[in-house]
Design goal:
CATH class: Alpha Beta
Shape: globular
CATH topology: TIM Barrel
Distance between the termini: 20 Å
Low-confidence stretches: 285-299
Structural class: alpha/beta
Mean pLDDT: 90
Radius of gyration: 18 Å
Amino acid sequence: MNQPVFVMTVDADSWSSLLQFYSIRHRTAKVEKEVSFEDGTERLLALFSKHDIHVTFFVPGRVAEDYAKVIRKAGFKGHEIACHGHDHDKNEFLAGREYQKRQIMRAVETISSAAGTEPRGFRAPCLRLNGTTLKILDEIGFKYDSSILPTFVPGYYGSLGAPLAPYHPSGDVVWKEGSLRILEIPVSVNPVFRLPLSAAWMRNFGLSWVKIGVRTSFALGLPVVFYIHPRDVVPLPKIDGVPWHMYRNIGDSAVRMLDEIISYAKRLGARFLTGSELARHHDSPEISKHSVLTGESLS
């Protein structure tokens, strides 16, 4: 029987990036003191250590600059440090080619300096990118992208027709299969209802929603790719303009829920891989897809 795969990821952007998404203006220094990026990251690291799993941290360049110590610590603990753009602007990777390439190269340099290793995986801020982004990543030599969420939620996501399993994308239509070398690892949705499983949906729809999606994905032979933010697991100040659903079941409640999801996936026999591990074994000519799922030859 094939062993299911779970890829736990952390979108390591700060509280101020959420306010920017909702066009809320606050002084950065004040905002960053209100919500501790370090505390949220440390809580996640402790949970991952408890379960003895390695995960992928998608880190913006600016976060790597400001919080190099905690990013380096995550890398020392064996977690993958991947790229999440540079500024974490929601339109950062909907722009023209030269601007996008400059942002990617800035981020790679900063993240490499902070983590001590060059990122091989990418996730666009707010999961928004275009074909230009994928072509640049492919040219630079990134091994995988994980920005496609196969659903349609107005104002947030719009790749309903994308494959649910990893695929090599087209540089023209990002949610279609094509000939680029880079591997697209889609963020997971419920395979039946095509709504996301990750942190905000876990916090608002509850554990049963995520468990059903995880179990169904595994039954169909799909890897589960889940993401959470450091801000999800710490208290957040109430600020006008931030929607109510961003506050539901945050802090200790989110930690308990994530703890149960990891435990549940383990009870189903899941093997936890980083994004790079999944990409490497997916495309390796020496290792069959069966081996990826069963865990054979995974060292």
